[in-house]
Amino acid sequence: MSTFKRICVYLGSNPGKRPIYKRAIYTLVDELIKRDIGLVYGGSNVGTMKILADRMLEKGGEVIGVIPESLVDREIAHTELTQQHIVNSMHERKALMEKLSDGFIAIPGGLGTLDELAEILTWRQLGFHQKPCGLLNVDGYYDHLLAFFAHAGNEGFIREEHWGLLKVATQPKELLDSMAGA
Hints:
Structural class: alpha/beta
């Protein structure tokens, strides 16, 4: 049994260009199912979000989506989830995802993924929550972002005590283990 009931996963509304991203999602799902951890995500039925939700459902896992009304048609809301919450705004989406989750993982995605990761890390830094935050660095996807974080720290914009708020790993098992010990 896991210390987490549900993990929020931030990821893309696009599928990415390489099959390694789908394989990483499948490996993450296998690890979540093995640990009996439910999923909270953006509620979409496109891109890597669809791959993640469909695989969790295929494996019998709990899948909770949270999607703003304005994106229901644009991102195509997933209709087969355990629960689907339709909210009024992106802020409500992020707030409800935080409330429903025991931890957060960002996997490769675009600007929305980066926005969600930055906001949840900021909330952690400010003490708005004490939940672990993780980054699944698939095939070096986030190497440049991690270099930026180090640069920001070296330049005095990220305090040393905040450097460890983000757990980073290349494999889901390692990441979840690290987050459980956070």
